[in-house]
Structures are given as C-alpha cells and as structure tokens.
Amino acid sequence: MNVHVEARDVVKRFGPTTALAGARIAIEEGETHALVGRNGAGKSTLVSILTGLQRPDEGEVLFSGQPAPALADRDAWRRRVACVYQKSTIIPALTVAENLFLNRQSDKGLINWRALAGRAREVLDTYEVDVDAQALAGDLSVEQRQLVEIARALSFGARFIILDEPTARLDGPAIERLFTRMRSLREQGVTVMYISHHLDEVYEICQSVTVFRDARHVTTRPVADLPHDELVAAMTGEATAVYEARSRTPGETVVLSGENLGLAGRYSGIDISVRSGEVVGLAGSASSGKVGLAETLVGLRRADTGTVTINGTKVRPGDVPAAMKAGLGFVPEDRHHEGFVPLLSVGENATFPIARKLGRYGLISPSRRRDTAERMIGSLDIKTEGPDQPVADLSGGNAQKVVFARALVDDPTVLVVINPTAGVDVKAKQALLGAVEDAVERGAGAVLVSDELDDLRICDRVLVMFHGRVVKDVPRGWTDHELVAVMEGMEE
Amino acid sequence: MTTLTAPAPRVRLARFRDLTLVPVIVILLVVGAVLDPTFLTAGNLTNVLQQQAAISLLVLAEAMILIAGKFDLSLESTVGTAPAIAVMLVVPVAAGGFGIGLPGALVIPLALLIGAAIGAFNGFLIIRFQLSAFIVTLAMLIIVHGFLQGPSEGKTLFQLPDSILYLGSALWLGLPAAIWIAGALFAAGIFGLGYLRLGRSLYAIGGNVDAARAAGIRVDRVLYGVFILGGTLAALAGILETGRLGAIGNNQGVGWIFMVFAAAVIGGVSMDGGKGTILGALTGVLVIGLVQNILTLIGVSGFWQPVIYGAIILIALMISRIAGGKAQD
Amino acid sequence: MTTLTAPAPRVRLARFRDLTLVPVIVILLVVGAVLDPTFLTAGNLTNVLQQQAAISLLVLAEAMILIAGKFDLSLESTVGTAPAIAVMLVVPVAAGGFGIGLPGALVIPLALLIGAAIGAFNGFLIIRFQLSAFIVTLAMLIIVHGFLQGPSEGKTLFQLPDSILYLGSALWLGLPAAIWIAGALFAAGIFGLGYLRLGRSLYAIGGNVDAARAAGIRVDRVLYGVFILGGTLAALAGILETGRLGAIGNNQGVGWIFMVFAAAVIGGVSMDGGKGTILGALTGVLVIGLVQNILTLIGVSGFWQPVIYGAIILIALMISRIAGGKAQD
Amino acid sequence: GTTTEAGGGGGKVGIDHPRADSDFWNSYIKYVPQMAGELKVDLMPATNSQNDVAKLVNNVQALIGQGAKVIVMAPQDTGAIANTLQQLENKKIPVVTVDTRPDKGNVFMVVRADNRAYGTKACEFLGEKLGGKGKVVQLQGALSSINGRDRSEAFLECMKSKFPGITVFSEPTEWEGSKAASMLQTRLEQNPDIKGIYMHAGGVHLAPTLQVLKQKGLLVPPSDPKHVFVISNDGIPQEFESIRKGDIDATVSQPADLYAKYALFYAKAAADGKTFKPGPTDHGSTIIQLPNGLEDQLPAPLVTKENVDDQALWGNQVK
Ligand SMILES: Nc1ncnc2c1ncn2[C@@H]1O[C@H](COP(=O)(O)OP(=O)(O)OP(=O)(O)O)[C@@H](O)[C@H]1O
Ligand SMILES: Nc1ncnc2c1ncn2[C@@H]1O[C@H](COP(=O)(O)OP(=O)(O)OP(=O)(O)O)[C@@H](O)[C@H]1O
Ligand SMILES: [Mg+2]
Ligand SMILES: [Mg+2]
Fold this sequence. Notes:
The complex is a heterotetramer, with 1 copy of chain A (492 residues), 2 copies of chain B (329 residues) and 1 copy of chain D (319 residues). Helix content of chain A is 33%, strand content 25%. Chain A contains 17 helices and 20 strands. In chain A, β9 (208-213) and β10 (216-222) form a beta hairpin. The model of chain A has no long low-confidence stretch (mean pLDDT 89). Classes of the chains: A alpha/beta (492), B mainly alpha (329), D alpha/beta (319). At the B-C interface, α6, α12 and α14 of B face α6, α12 and α14 of C. β2 of chain A pairs antiparallel with β1 (3-4) of chain C. One magnesium ion (MG) binds next to loops of chain A. Chain A: InterPro entries: AAA+_ATPase, ABC_carbohydrate_import_ATPase, ABC_transporter-like_ATP-bd, ABC_transporter-like_CS, P-loop_NTPase.
C-alpha cells in the first residue's frame, strides 16, 4: 500500500508555545487512521497544517509523495483534503444549504437557489441529517450544526477526509450513522484521519493509530496490536487505570428541585428532585429536552410553568446570578457560546463566580485570584502557561476544563453539568468526573446531562427523557443496552 | 435526529426580514400626503429620489463593506475629493486647476480611478497591515478631505468640464439620469449579492472569516475588491452630486457618513458583518429621504428640526425591530 | 500537552500591550522639542493637558462603553446640552434662561443629572428594546444637540453662574483644576477596570455576553451603569469645557466624537468589545493632544493641516501595531 | 437704488436660512418674521439648510414645489448653487441672496455687507493701535466658507501692504470656540509679546478669547502696557458689553436686522415686478453692478468705545 498523506518533522510555534515539535504522521491509502493524544497534544494544529490553513514553521506535507500545494492555492488543497474542523466553520447568518455549498453554490455564473436547496436536501438525505436546508444555520442546535459540517466534508468527494472530534457533540445513534457512512467510504477507497477522545471508537472503526504526546509523535501502530491500556499509557506517558465510579449513600436534604416545569416545544410536566450527596443523570436521545430542562434549572432559560428551588430558596426564573447565589455551579452545553470569555485569562474566567470573595469592597486581589486559579489549574490538570494566559489560546479540551473550574470554584452545593466531557481526553475525563464525585462527596447534589453512557455511570440514578417527558427513573446498575432502549422509546 | 417545526413559515419570514422598513415607508407616505398636498406629486417624489441618488450610492458601497465585516468612513471625503482632483487635472490654472490640462473627456474616468485608488489604499492598510478599519478610514477621511482643501485652498470649483456635469443633470426618458444610474446599480447590487458567488462570499467573510478562508474564498482579494468598489462608487456619487449642484464645494460630501450608516443600519445591515441585504439598505435610504422631504415641506423650525428628525429615526428603528423580531447589533 | 518556554516574558509583554503608544509619545516629544523651543516648556505642556482635559473624559467614558461591547456617539452632544440646560434652568430669561430660576449652586449637580439621564435613556433603548447601539446613539446625538439648539434658539449662553465656570478655570496647586480632575478620574478608571469586580465584568460582557451572563454577572444592570456613567462624564466634560471657554456655544462638543474614537482606538481599545485598557486610552488622548499642539506651534497652513494630522494618526497606528504585535480590530 | 417701474403680481416668498447655530444668523432668523410683518410680505414657512449646500438645493426644490414666486437664500457655498440658480432662472423665479454673492448664476439682488471690508477695517484698527509693528493673531472662521476667506484674505493683504512690520499668525478655528481657545493659548505661550487679536466671529470667539486672556493675566485696560488689542466681528450685544467694560476694543457690526429687512424688501419688490439700478440708495448704502446681478452693499460700521451706545446699532436693539 502507498502512503497517501505524510507530514514530516513538522514544527509549529505560537509565541512561546510549541504546539508541534518535529511531529510526523504517515497515513496509508484507503485506511482509517486514528490520531489520539491528550488535550493540547497538537492534533488540531496538525489538522490545520494538513489542510493548508497554516504554514508549518518547519517540516513538510506530502500528498501521495508530492509536495503539498502553495498555501494560496485553496482549490488545490480542497481537491486533496476535506475536513471537519474542531472549531465550527458554520456561518450562522447563512442557510444550511448555503453553508453546505459555501463558495461552490454554482459552477459558474448565477446561483440557482432552488436547485441549490435541492442539492442540499440530497446531501442531507444521503447522510441522513434531518435538518431543513432553508433554515438559518444559526438557528440549529449545536449537534445539528455538527451534522451539517460532517455532511459538508463528506460531500466533497475528496479522497482524503479529516474528522477532528466529530463525535464530541453527537449522541449514540448519530455516531452509529456516521460510522456506517465512514465504513462505506472506506470501501470506496477513501482515506480518513480520525481524531477522537473516545478510544473505543478508535477500536471500532480505525485500522491504525498514531499517538502524539507533548507535541511529538510517540508511536504508530495497527490498532489490533495496541491494547487499550497500552494506548492510554502511550498518550499519558504512564499507566492509567480505568475510571471506577464510586458508590455512596445520598443524604436526605433535597438541594435542588423543580416542580411541574414546562417549556413550550421542549418539555412539559417535569418534576425533579436532587438530594445532597446524589448524582442524578439526565439522558435522552436528541431533542428529548434534557438540555432544555437542565438550562432551565440553572436559570439560562425561563420556563413557561413551574418553579425551581435551590437549597430551599425559590429562584426567580431565568435569573442565573440568583441561582448561583443560592449555591449553584454549572457547566453549560456550548463552551464557546456560554462557557468562557476568550480574551480573558484562565484565572479570570475560572474565578468569575467568586469574584466577590476575592477581596473586600468590590476589589479583586490579583494575588488571591492567582492562587485560586493555580489551585484549580492543578486540581483539574489544565495545560496552560499559567493563570494569565487567555483562554482563546488553549486547546479545546483545556478550555472545557476552565469552564469546569468556573463551575466548581465556589464549592457549589448544587452542580449541573451538561455534556461536561465533550472533547476532553481520557485522563482529563477521569479528572472531571472525579471532580463531580468529589463535590458530591462533600455534600453537593449534582445533575449530569450527557450523551455518553460512560459518564452516566457515576450517577446514582438516571432520568430518561423522551419527547419532552421523563419516561423512566433508572437506578444504578443498568446496562448500555437497557438504557439505550429506554432512550429510544422502545421500552416504557 | 431532531423534530423540526414546519420549515415553510421560517423561510417566508427570512425573506421578509429585508423589508421590515416597508411599513415605515407606507406610514411616511400617508403622513406626508396628509401634511402637505405637494408631497405625493410625481414631481416631489422624483425630487426625493434625485436628492437621494448620490448618497444612496454611498449606502450601497457601505452596505457591501459592512456585510464583508469591515468599515469605511472615508467614503464621504471621496465624494468631494475624487471629482475635484479629476477636475483640477483637466481645467486650466485660471479655473483653479493644476495646469496639467488633460483632455476634458477624461474627467469621469479620472475621478473613478481616484476613487478606486483611495479604496485600494484603505484596503492595503487594513488588509496588509491588519490595522483597525475604523481608525484607518477615520484618518483617511481627514486626509482625503485635506486633499480637496489643500489644492483648492478652500475655494469652490465652478468652472467644470461639461462631461462631469452631464450625468448629474441630464434627464433620461423624463427622469433624472442619476435616478436611473442609482437604480441600475442597486439592481446590480441586489443581484450580485444575491446570486453571484462573489457576492455571497461577502456574507461568508463577514460571518466567519476563518470559515470563509477554509472554504477556499480568497478573503484578501475579495476585501480589496470591496474597498476598491466602495471608493469607485463614492467617486461616482461625487460625480452625480457635482452635476446636480453645478460646482464642487469644499464641503461636498462632508457629514454624509453618519446618514449613510443610519440608512444602512435601519435597513437591516449589521455593524458586525455578515448580515443584511442591499434591498434593505435601499429601504433605509428611502426612509431617510422621505423624512427629510416631509420635514422640509412642513417647514419645522430649524432649531427643533434635529429633534424631530432624530426621533423619527428612533421610531423607524423600533418599528423595524418589532417587524423584524430580532435583536439588532 | 505543549512544550513551554518560561512563562514570564509573555506576562510581561501582555502588561506592556497597553503602552504601545509610548514610543509614539516619545517621538512626538523629541520632534516637538526640535521644531519649537516653546514646546517642552512646562507652560506649554500644561496647556496641552488643560486643552485635552475635557475631551479626555469623553475618551474615558467611551473606552468603558467600548470595552463593555457597546457604543455611544451621543456623548459629544451631551457635552454642550447638559451644562446648557442646567444653566438655562438657573439663569433669568434675560440671560437666555427658562425663567425657572433654580438656585445657582445647583447648576453643576443639575448638569451631571442631565448627563446621567441621557445615558440612562440610551441604555434603556439599547438594553430594553435591544436596538443597535450605534444607530440609537446616532439618533440621540442629533436629538440631544437639538435640545441645546431648540431652547437656546442657537444663541451662545454668555451669562453663566460662577459655580459652573469654577472647575474649568480654577488653578489648584498651580495647575488647572481640570487636569487634576481628569487625572483623578483616569486613575480611578485604571484602578476600577483593573481591580474592581464591577470593572472586570465590563471585559467579560464585552468579550462574550452570554458567558458573562452564565457566569452570574448582571449584564443589563452593569450596562445601564456604564451608559449612565458615560453620560455623567460627558456632562462633567461639558462643565470643564464651559469653564475653559467662558460661555456655552451651540457647537460645544460638536465633532468631538471622531477624535474620541480615534484616541480610544489608537490607544488599543477594540471596537469589538472586551479589549483595551484605560491607560491605553489615556496614551491615545495624549498623542492626539501633542499632535495638535505641535501643528499649531509650527503653524502649518490651515489647508494642509488635516493631511498632516491624519497622516500622523496613521503612523501612530502603525507604530503601535508593530510595537503591540497583534492584528487590530 | 431707484424704483423705475411698478407692476402687478406679488406672490409667496420662500426663504431658506443657512444655519441655526450661530448668534449672528439666529438674530437674522428672528428678524425675518418681524420684518415680514412690517413689509407685509407673504412669507412661506422658512426652511433651514444647516450649512449644507446639498440641503439648500433640496429645500429650494421643495419651496418651488409649494409655489414660491421669489426665493431668499444665503448660500454658504457660493459655487455649488450654480445649477439651482439656473433652474430658478428657467422657471422665472427671482432670487435674493443674503450675505454671500454666488459665483455663477443670475440673482435679482445680493444683500450683504462687504466681508473684505471687515477684514480691512480690522487690519487698519489693529495696525494703528499697534503703531505698525508687533505680532497679531487672527482667529479665522472656516477656510471653506467664503466669508471667512474674504475676511482672512483682506486682513492679510492689508497687513502686508499697509503694516509690513506686523507679524500675523492665522489660526483656522472652523468657527469653533474650543479650537480658538486652544490655538490662542498655545500661540500666546509661544509668543508672549502678541499685542493684537482679530476674531472673525464674536459669537464663537469672544468668550474663549477673554477666558484665555484672563488666565494669562492679559485682560487689562488699554493704558496698561500689557494690554492686548482685540477687535471682533459681528456686533452682538455681548461684544458691545465687552467694549463698554474695556475687555475688547472694537467690533465690526454686521447688520443682521438690515440683512433681514432688505432681503425681504427686495424679495417683495421682485414679486411686484420692480427693478433696480446701480447707485446710492435711500438707506445709506450703494447698489453696485455684478456680472450676474446687483448687490446692495449695506453699511457695516466699526464700533468702538466712542459709538458703542448708538441705538441705531442692531446689537443695541436685541435683548
Ligand atoms: N492560535 C494559537 N495561539 C496560541 N496557542 C495556540 C494556538 N492554537 C493552538 N495553540 C496551542 O497549541 C497547543 C496545541 O493545540 P491543539 O489545538 O493542536 O491541541 P489538540 O491536540 O487539538 O487538543 P484538544 O484535544 O484539546 O483539541 C495548545 O497548547 C494550544 O494552547
Ligand atoms: N430557541 C429554540 N427555538 C426552537 N427550537 C429550539 C430552540 N433551541 C433548541 N431548539 C430545538 O429543540 C429541541 C430540544 O432541545 P433540547 O436541547 O432541550 O433537547 P436535547 O435532548 O438536549 O437534544 P440534543 O441532545 O439534540 O441537544 C432541539 O431539537 C433543538 O433543536
Ligand atoms: Mg483539538
Ligand atoms: Mg443537546
């Protein structure tokens, strides 16, 4: 077999940060090749170099042994490689159809909008994306956007496709559909580079795997030759045990409760109560309303009916500060949207909720902020130059940890986390789930919303939602199959 | 997968989002007709269109630049300077020229070229040096106006070649040529930004420049083009205004830029880029023109006129906000 | 994970990012000293500071508003209108007043109150109705100025209560009071935006308003506060200017807003919100003031002055771009 | 001027005011309805072009649309109304311009005082007071305004020819008090021996100038050797007040009342079909022939401490 894509001795620096230090990768023609590594290992940086968005400081990229085209020649790059980037490249003000065919709305001359919508519908149908082609992309949910991006990358017909964490925001069935699609592409001889922090996915669809650590290439091997724990060890540089969910006995006090909550079009008639020392999961397939419900609990949304009580205080609907004052900490669904202020430092982002405790008379003591931030950086293992680095410069997973730090910094008695481990590496995931469990052991009650069954294992019980209603309260000890069946509405 | 609400109404709403000012225009027409009998005559409405023709070209230019996510304040200075320098290159020293004496027929191409050059220089500073568009074009607003004031020493140029007067003063099929020209250019703009790949790329660039680059759009080249086109349109606006007024004063175009932004923004063009349409910008121009005309006709006291004028803009803004249903930015 | 070099230099660099205009200031001081012997005298530099005191308060206000991600054009109109209305409430009809005859000692609190009210009204329209800040404050710029022109019928107010003249003309410890006031307010601004919870929340709101809301910041309340503070500072600027000029003309403050934006932006405040410092904005004011002073001293021809002035702003922009090392917006 | 022919007609007079933000024009605007009443002119509601010639053109179009038979205007940009004047001529609508003289296009009558004469008077006054030597500052209006330019050029030409020993610093203030104060302050810092100031517009320049002089301790009586001689322009009441107090020394009174009166007088005459010839008039002025019409040059007296209480001065008739 031939090497289809190769990067040699690539060095890429961003100011004082070296994102890639002589990294290399070689991908055989027709294989699905995984690239794994911890957050900040340089994976996305390599992607931007392999797709011609950034010039490596040193090193070269070869396609089928030929040097890569000039950076300015975008068309040549696009013939060689299509990509779903980790950062969204959807343009919110344009329709889905136009996003799908951006800069290729027509071959030449006029755009025929009707035909374009037709072509878009075809693409969406082919990849089973149930989205209106005429809708504005900005009105889509996060995962709908992700699906549109995937459909767009696949629709190019390029012989080489890069998928940078495509599944971080997808639920089970959507991931399955994506894999079906990828398998059929492989049968057609398409080469794929696949980046994910879900290592089981690597085993499911990839033939070989490259591991990066600390901006360097560590190993490349057929997946069959690399058992799970060795893979993790290669990524982390040390042996790491599988995460073990802890068991505990929930207390008696109800710290968070919602009565008769309803929001038109999203969910209705929800009663939920979370005790101290308890983790309650919220599961459901897409559009089940679980995120909407969680966002109502924290005050990001105002419910049409019902009340939310935190630690005995009735919280004014839609009032985040009031909820936080009552003892809430939370991780929102979309870190870019609601999670952090990109230009501000790690330290500042992590300490906003406790700003009033960092000094008297409305003052913030920079040294106390630094101390607190450094503690959070340590406990969550955030890879950063220090508390003063802007969050915008962090890798995706590390930015997520900053959001987590913000949720935990005030020692919340109620914790609501939505898809908390999206885009977070194996080890960090353990740290984050551990952090939730730590908080709960300290007496907090937690709500965990997730599409990932693994995350839900730490829950004492899982509320499964379907079409806006809680259909079942599943206690610990479920199997994947059972839970999925309930989520799909196949069992009542 | 997801349950979607019926897609049809959403689409229709999006289409009409350009037209949120139409109710405002209707109200203005009715109010104007009630307040003054002259208002709804063909003659008066033609006057309104002719008066707005030149400034509307600036709105067209600014709308494109804003949609592409940039900013150009210097357009207003180009309105005076481009035709003035072109004229000075052509007329003799006695008429205020440089004494170079290029042929009079060249004056329009020269003016357009000067406009394009100003646009290109703006583009160069902003794109090449990655400077803030606001402040670069603010400095250029001052500099370009200085290039009118300096050579003319503050004097009005009134001995102009006939060629530069023609477009702004001729009648074609009974209507001022300026109206035809502005109409044609707006049609081209609506069409170009609606149906051409190049036009659509402005939305992509303004909406998410990284995504646009990733999609293979030659961002820098397109932005250069937009600035150059903007400068050229401003020069053309200057030519039309010169023909309408019959001379080039030192203040030609000065103070227009605020109204240009007002027209574009109440017409739905976002200051943040990527949003708005040329048709919407056109409705913005019409609203401003009608308001000014009505205030003139009813002869509000000059002292209080600004208050009424500003208040009407605010009300138009609210109506279009309510009709459009979305927060503005 | 990444290989890190020592973190120290980055931190230090970030600190100096506010000060990218310092080399420009140094160059201006040297050039000024070479060109004119008067330039570096204490008297002249004091004059520069005094002349910039009023406008610097507007820059302070606008910098805060820009950092919070909003926009206020109407500040320039408040500079004239707030003190003028306050004066008219106090002086007798013969002196151009309303004849209400409130006590003269109230004139400063009244002016500040009027400024605050204008700011609050801007905030109300922008926050409550989610209207575009640019266009709301543009309309308010026109309206507020109309509220000076209307009641005064365009006349300059010459007969002012002594209390309103005091701050702008007094000397404290040998320096004009205006310099002390502006200095103190800038110090407060630098401190507040650097070390106060409330001040830091402006950066969060301007940087990502949804994240700020999700972090528990009461966004609307803070924004109201910023607009009100902005209006109040503009009124104070008007009081200082009134004292310096000895009368309130109809044009007081008119045309300042461009210079205010120029100062803030070359000082490193971003038009997109969330970026910049008060110290940076202060250096911007100083650059503008020194340039104007040098141009006056060497007596460049009035006709060409704008060209030189604009060119110097562009050069300052480039130097600060190179010194700062980051693309601007 | 002499009335040579009386004819029928009459008709509505449309009037456009040039700006509402200066004391001089505001006095003029207030005189207009008063004089219209006295002269029984059928005046339409006035429009205001806010110092923008494009607005002026729009306003005139609207006035014509509403049936104006005569137009009174004060174009601050004297070139850019050429087309409008042509259109008005084609429609046989006579035009009276106030304060400025259009460069091109026919007018029925120009009513103005000679702005060049203002500059010359100021020059002669300062030149004599300073004894032909020393330094003076002129606070100019806007260089793009014809009046500002006329005053400025005449002042400079006169200084050059009659008082070559005097150095003149010209400061372009754009009619702004703030700029005037800053520039004067800076110039006095640089040249503490400045002994004379000519202000182009008392309305905007008076208060800032006094404020700067006061701050520098230069607001002293003429007997004091530190005295700076100040001559202003406009003739507003505050200037008279300052002359009486000895703060400034003189001003040129620009007759706002006569502008309004004779603008309407000639407008009514034009509507009635009367015509005029060059020559002296019955109100102490002279009509001169221009290439494109006639101009009634109204007197603009120099006001000093001697005649400041003359009740004929318009500045003494307003409150
Ligand atoms: N534009 C940039 N400016 C500064 N630093 C950057 C920039 N882009 C990436 N980096 C840094 O480069 C390193 C590698 O980042 P990269 O995004 O490639 O990581 P990754 O392996 O994709 O991580 P993740 O799994 O979290 O997505 C990180 O330390 C990051 O902070
Ligand atoms: N503002 C909105 N207006 C209309 N529909 C919306 C809005 N926001 C989200 N939706 C849609 O409502 C549905 C329910 O959303 P919600 O996020 O509560 O469910 P979910 O179970 O989290 O779904 P997912 O797993 O897809 O995020 C989603 O399909 C989403 O597209
Ligand atoms: Mg990544
Ligand atoms: Mg979801």
